[in-house]
Design goal:
globular, 2 domains, Rossmann fold, 8-stranded mixed β-sheet, 44% helix, alpha/beta
Length: 305
């Protein structure tokens, strides 16, 4: 447009017999304004092509190798049988579950496993921790335990990690890193919940989770997500959309039939891998395993939260 403006002004000046040298400043000003408009339009187009959230800092393979290593101090009352009682019947059940998940991988994409329950106190956090520890024992396999229950975090307590920043602090941008840690001696990475926020559902709906999960899935072979119960919270529906498969934990003597039915109906059936009965004891199975386990072992029932 500045070229058209210059030509019209020159034509008018020549027609009126004016000095055309006085027009150069106006033309230069118009050209400068046009350049600013083009730059603004270009930047606006570039921003429009960006995703709603650009996670910073991003997760890289080098960063994972440099993650802080935390010592594990499992409390005496812990139900982490996969670590503290490796020869127990409970630990054997988790090894069997890990085998079944690896078998399912042959027929469907399966990396992000969501562990949930219908209601609280059914043991889903303990199941998630034991499963993650079991999957991490295979060499050359990178496993991440992600604590998605921001309302009632328990992971740090289960492993004796103390208070460390986690997903909540990452959401608020309070830390530079992604708050991923490697547990000493277990070959397991963890992303704890951190301090319980006041608005967990709003944080999860901010659009930050999908790109983060995509990055994590690029570097981990397994991601075990400990989510809140299905009823009556909406947090689990967000995690369920990001997961490849869902395991529903129930507890003998706690879960009612109606609650279980509602929990199953609330989950996407195509992603539902099955249900786990927690806290059950099979005496015959226990005796059989006791006879074939090493003498120092002791058979126990399924762990609870």
């Amino acid at each position: 447009m500045s070229h058209i403006f210059d030509a019209l002004q020159r034509s008018e000046a020549e027609h009126l017999g004016e000095d055309i040298s006085t027009l150069s400043l106006a033309t230069e000003l118009l050209q400068a304004a046009e350049e600013k408009m083009r730059d603004a339009g270009k930047n606006g187009q570039e921003r429009a092509n960006f995703p709603a959230f650009d996670p910073s800092p991003s997760v890289s393979a080098e960063q994972l190798d440099q993650c802080p290593i935390l010592p594990v101090r499992i409390p005496l009352e812990s139900h982490l049988v996969s670590v503290a009682k490796e020869e127990s019947l409970g630990a054997e059940k988790f090894r069997y579950l890990a085998v079944r998940l690896r078998q399912l991988r042959h027929s469907r994409p399966l990396k992000k496993i969501l562990i949930t329950s219908s209601i609280p106190q059914e043991g889903k956090s303990t199941v998630a921790a034991n499963l993650a520890c079991t999957l991490a024992r295979r060499k050359q396999t990178k496993t991440l335990l992600l604590e998605g229950d921001l309302r009632r975090p328990t992971l740090a307590t289960q492993f004796g990690l103390g208070r460390v920043p986690g997903l909540s602090e990452w959401f608020h941008g309070e830390t530079r890193g992604n708050n991923i840690y490697r547990l000493e001696g277990l070959g397991l990475w963890v992303l704890p919940a951190g301090n319980a926020p006041e608005n967990p559902l709003e944080l999860m709906q901010s659009g930050k989770l999908p790109p983060l999960m995509d990055q994590l899935a690029a570097f981990f072979d397994w991601i075990v997500i400990d989510s809140p119960p299905v009823l009556p919270l909406g947090d689990t529906s967000i995690w369920a959309r990001l997961a490849d498969g869902i395991l529903l934990v129930t507890r003998k003597g706690v879960t009612e039939r109606q609650q279980l039915q509602r929990g199953l109906e609330a989950l996407e059936q195509s992603k539902l891998l099955g249900a786990l009965v927690n806290g059950s004891e099979d005496a015959a199975h226990s005796d059989y395993y006791q006879r074939y386990a090493p003498p120092a072992s002791s058979a126990v029932g399924s762990p609870s939260k």
